[in-house]
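Deliverable D5.2: sample structural annotation.
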Amino acid sequence: MPDTRTPARTDATGRIIRDWDTQNETPLPKRKPTTGMEPPPYRRDVFKGERRTEWDDWSRILQLDKTLSGAEKKAFHDIFAAEGGMKKAPGGSAVAGILQTTLNDLITRKRVEPLVGRKGEEIKTDDLDLQDVKDVYKGFFNQHFEGPAKTYNLKSQKRAIEGYQILGLIGDPRIASSVADMLFREGSGKGSEIIQNSIRLSDPEQDTGKGGAFRSMTLKALQEIAKDPRKARSFLEFSANARRREEKARNDYFRFRDEE
């Protein structure tokens, strides 16, 4: 059978244009260099060899998202790493830490409309790709930070934000990532309880608001904690101590570290 493909594209001097798809006559997308973001030390053995590409692709997707602040990128990196990335949990439904029940709930609450627009409402965690995971992470925090985001938007004269962007307002990327991971791992109830207790232990004068949910008073208290290095260190230590004892490596990662 004769080869019907068109020849490689050349420029005016006759040189072949690199990265040209001779099958479809279109330039091939160039793979961008790695972002330089490394997995957390305690998870580097997970993202090595063939799986290093998975980590770099995830890092690249976050880096190219202009809506994400540095704090939000760090939080999404840390959660993805802690949850083992795209490798499905043995005997369960979780992919990148996303349970099927969580995904279903976010779909019902219309928190992942970009994902639904691409793949419909009958989505299984097995079907998620890296872009989908990012949308689910955003939707998860849009849900959990809905109250503080609404309050901020009512008061702000500059710009409206979505819930996940509350992480960027805390004022310390380490605290923001720790808070995000606690809410993601423990859920709103238990996660908020750990956060509020750790705030009060770090600064008894801080008011975290009524009830156990993460609301605007909790955010305000965290912002005050983040301004004081001593209190920030105490918060990270107290919250790490309150986490699940069987996840020591994960807990220790979110403690205060001098190099940061």
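Annotation notes: The beta strands are 20-21, 26-27. The chain has ten helices and two strands.
The annotation will be released with the project's public dataset once the embargo ends.
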